[in-house]
Write a structure and sequence with these properties.
It is a single chain. It contains five helices and seven strands; from the N terminus they run E-E-H-E-H-E-H-E-H-E-E-H. By secondary structure, the chain is of the alpha/beta class. The chain has a seven-stranded mixed sheet with strand order 1-7-6-2-5-3-4, sandwiched between helices.
Length: about 200
Amino acid sequence: MHGLWRPRVLGARRVPPSGPAILAVNHSHFVDGPMLIGTSPRPVHFLVKQEAFIGPLGPFLRGIGQIPVDRSGTDRAAVLAALGVLERGGMLGIFPEGTRGEGDFASLRSGLAYFAVRSGAPVVPVAVLGSNERPGRLVKALPALRGRIDVVFGDPFEAGDGSGRRTRGALDEATVRIQHRLTDHLAEARRSTGR
């Protein structure tokens, strides 16, 4: 990451130094995941679409601890693997919008709330800014080489309401709380970086 771009990491001290944690990351370009893996203060295990594990990239992704997920339905093996990361005190990375988009946290799926409420792990909001900027690109599919990409970590927070409930209603409420916190973090990250 540092050879191709100029990542600037802000707020890395906010990531809990140990214990389970979930990084909730906006997602507007395919380099967002690798950028976070390369700049995170701790190893991070992402749920990655299973199609990315086809061919020579598969053994590499598995070797660095990434988790394949079948997005066509509920992938029980991926869910158990992700919960296992948290149970072992590891850090799970999730793109809560489910796929690449505008990267604005406008439409969250309930997976992040499920993992946060079920595990009790704090959620750390992360904004990756600059990966999808158009000016200066030599290769159309990549961010401008040597361009600055900001990775901004926010303050960890608890997604649940403290009741320990895991009902559908509790998850829906947690998703709304999470969305507000992520949206606020993204706005603050844009202000602080000028992006």
